[in-house]
Amino acid sequence: MVSVFIPKETHEGENRVAATPDTVKQMVKKGVKVVIQAGAGLSSHFSDDDYKALGATIEPEREKGLAQADLVMQINIPDAATINAIREGGSLISFLWAFENLDAVKKLNERKISMFAMDAIPRTSRAQKDDALSSQANLAGYKAVIVAANHLHKILPMMMTP
User: Checking phi first, is residue 89 left (phi over 0); if not, alpha (psi -120 to 50) or beta?
Assistant: First the structure.
C-alpha cells in the first residue's frame, strides 16, 4: 500500500495545506495510506478529527512521517531539514521553483527523491485540472478585489460577466 504524508507547512504566513479532507477521502478510497502531521490543516480550518473521520492517520512527529512515507505532499519547497528527513528514494509533490531553488533541487536529487513540481505543470487545456498556478492566481485576484473593496469608501457594485 502506498503511503502519503502531508506535513504542516513551515513557511511563515502559509495557511494552506496540501490535502483537504475531500482529497484525503479520495486517496483513502483508492487504497492509499494517508498520514497527516498533527495540526497540518488547522490554518485552513481543518481539524485532525476531520481527517481521521475520513480514514487518515494523524502523526505528531514530523520527522517520523517524512521518513516513512513513499510520497510527501506539501505546498512550499522543503527546507534542508525536511529534505534530510524525507526517505531516500521517496517522492515529493510540491511547488519547487527549480531555477530559484537550485540548491534544494540538487539536494533532493542527491537523495534520489523523485520530484513533481506543481509550478512546472503546463498550462494547457489537457492539464487544466492539475494547473495549480492558474488556480492560485485566480484566488489571489479574487482576494485582491475583496481587500481593495474593503479600503474603498463607497459601494462597489458586484457585476459578473461570462
Answer: left
Task: Please give the model's pTM, rounded to 2 decimal places.
Answer: 0.81
Tens-place pLDDT, residues 97-117 = 999 999 999 999 999 999 999
Dihedral angle at the C-alpha atoms of 31, 68, 121, 96, nearest 10 degrees?
160
Closest listed residue to residue 89, CA positions, set 113, 110, 65 = 113
Task: Measure the CA–CA gap between 28 and 110, rounded to whole angstroms.
Answer: 31
Domain residue ranges in the chain: 3-120, 122-155
pLDDT in tens, 72-99: 999 999 999 999 999 999 999 999 999 9
| Residue indicated by cell numbers 503546463 | 122
Interatomic CA distance for residues 7 and 96, integer angstroms = 16
Q: What fold does the segment set 3-120 form as a domain?
A: Rossmann fold (3.40.50)
The neighbouring-strand residues paired with 59 are 37
